[in-house]
Each structure stands twice: as C-alpha cells, then as structure tokens.
Amino acid sequence: MSKLYPIRTCVFCRKKELKKKLVRITCFQGKVGLDKEQSLPGRGAYICHEARCIDKLDNPNKIKKLARALRFPLTRERVQLLERELQEFIKRGKHGEG
Ligand SMILES: [Zn+2]
After folding, report:
1. Long-range contacts: 79-83, Cβ < 8 Å, 24+?
2. pTM across the whole model
C-alpha cells in the first residue's frame, strides 16, 4: 500500500500544497496561534509559508476567511500577534533549513 502525502489548501490563495509545507494556524484553548508541530487538536487552517500569503493578514476579507475556517472571531489584536508569530517562524525557518 502506498503512503499518501496529506494535502491541504491555503485559506488565502487556495493553493494546494503538502501539509508539511504549509503553516497550521489553530485555535486552541481560546488562543489563536501557530501550531508548529501540526498536532494540536481543534480546528485548524493552513496558509502558505510565504510572505505573500502572510501579508494578506492585512486584508479584512482574508481575515474573515481565516476566522470562518477556524470558527473563531479574530480581533485586530489577535491578527497582529499572529502576524508577528508567522514572520518570526518564517525567519527562523529560512535560517535553520537544511
Ligand atoms: Zn497561500
């Protein structure tokens, strides 16, 4: 039996990617944040591991989409925290890759 690689869709650009190539955002215990291990329970949403998608956190329509995917209201504050977390994550990822 061949092993299937899980594919997920970016909530912002709708691109289909391997799950491990996307960043999982989850709402866990009332807190929205990155799920770095992609293992937290609860609803999650995936977005590309790229600045051009993370920049969409500035777009109210995209934020609404993300909130709907998570079934969790996203305040401006939460979005800003998330954005910072994502940018840190990308920086570190690029730095420590390989
Ligand atoms: Zn994307």
Report:
1. 81/32, 81/33, 82/25, 82/32, 82/33, 82/34, 82/57, 83/54, 83/57
2. 0.85
